[in-house]
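It is worth pausing here to work through a concrete case rather than discussing structure prediction in the abstract. The textbook approach is simple: state the sequence, then state the predicted structure, then interpret. We follow exactly that order.
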Amino acid sequence: MKLKLLLITVLALGGMAHAQGFASHLAIGAGFEGIFPAATVTKPTSNLNPVATTQWTTNSVGAVADARYDFGHHSALDLSLTVNRNTEAFQDQNVAITRVQTNNAEVIGTYIFRLPSTEKVKPYALLGGGMIRFSPNSNFTTQIPSADIKPAFAYGFGFDFKTSERWAVRLQLRDLIHGDPDFKLLTAAQPFGTGLKTHVPEPSIQLVYHF
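Step two, the predicted structure:
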């Protein structure tokens, strides 16, 4: 009985040590992120197709949450979730401007490569991708739009400014490249979207806690 109790205690302590070892490489952050999508424009391709179309997105600020795990001297894995709201607008030469307001969720995973740093300032580069879900709400001026999901490519860089043993401030500029959402409205009666790729700079600031 004593041997069994000893074995259980050893296993429990080992599990706690393993968990503490994992947590010591983990950092979580939360803050705000700006979303500044570039407009996309299709040019007339011929006299038979003389219409240029434009799609643009209103700028917005969202909330971002982040988890990062260091697994080497220069390497880490990062998973972030950003939520925000903006409006997609579309126009061609033959129709009025149509708009769809959406609630968006970005789930992005990236590989972090740490650059030469000091004790207080730790720069890094990032590369990865994920997906963005565009969820229309009741504010639109077109036919009823449907939710749209687009894959996204991510790259960028940032800095962690260490303020104490556990806390840091993170400044980051992440750029996303993804397809313009069309909300399944690509019909002759109600076209929407250029169908092109857009570039989205996303600067952010976070408060980070290191376990």
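Step three, interpretation. Helices lie at 2-23. The longest helix spans residues 2-23.
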